Amino acid sequence: MRALMTIHESGPKTGQFIRKLVQLRGSQGTGMCLTGMPDEATKGKDIHGQIEAHQVLGLRHMDLRMAVDSDGKPKNVVAIDDAAFGKVERAVNEADLVVSCFESSIANWTRNLTDPLGVDIDELQRAIPRMKALGTEWIRVMSWKTPADMQQNEAAPLVFSRMRNLVDIAEKGGVVLLQENCTGFGGRSAENALRLVEQMDSPNFGLIFDSGNCIPHLQDPVQFLLETMMYTRFVHIKDCYATVYQPDTEIYTLAGQGSAKIREILFQLMLRGYNGGLSMEPHVADKIHLGIVAKTEKAAYDSYVDYGRAFKSLLAEVTADYEGFIAQKK
Predict the structure, then answer these.
(1) Domain range holding 233?
(2) What pLDDT digit, counting tens, does each position of 131-150 carry?
């Protein structure tokens, strides 16, 4: 336990920032809640199908990622036009669901570190009023794809400068950027993620931990979580195993059946009083980053709902284990 606490307490420690962070963690009042990305529950990304999947699973929270634009094409919820977003907003409100996080494409794996920053700035500025309309504080970002010929010591100052521009906008807009450990500077190592937090030094910047993203990077998911736990405000539940270490060769599984150590991750979160969201991102039938969608609407829906039911059962098992562990300690 002493070793784990040493890891947990390591990293940047700016006094004023830490005080603000403690005040803001869990400020949405959701506690440790189960949510997910139900755009994977519908081939066409129809918002009504997304909502239905979460209602069937008995979930009140959802993340927004893809939705149908006015031209009939699925796009990120930040990129759809105002009329299309209005339909999404009405559907979510009528269903009395809570949007935990906007899963945006800002700074993601399709955008190089040397690309113009204007695209990301425009998307964040467009996202903020939409987040306000739905009462959502958090928006997922990444930290750009580093060009193959650029060294990490060259990339770091550029990442910090670009992210600072986005954080300034987030601070003025009253939203929180959460950087996911995906392809990009912040996903290469826990050290890089912590450097980002330290450089931003803002209560409007934190981290998303994605369990499955550690596997293709040959990282230990539990170790990555423990090192970044102090600044982790949201968790993506994704499980897979890699047959070979090449990009996009992972095999995705139900949570707990792959190499991402989901059971241990859940236990460690409970042990440390985590009070954020657990967001299911199955990737089993629908692989957004590869442009692959399920073959049929039924296949998408059934895959997502089955994943949700299996994860709820796993979560109940780990909760029982945790409660038994605590009882033994008393």
Answers:
(1) 30-329
(2) 999 999 999 999 999 998 99
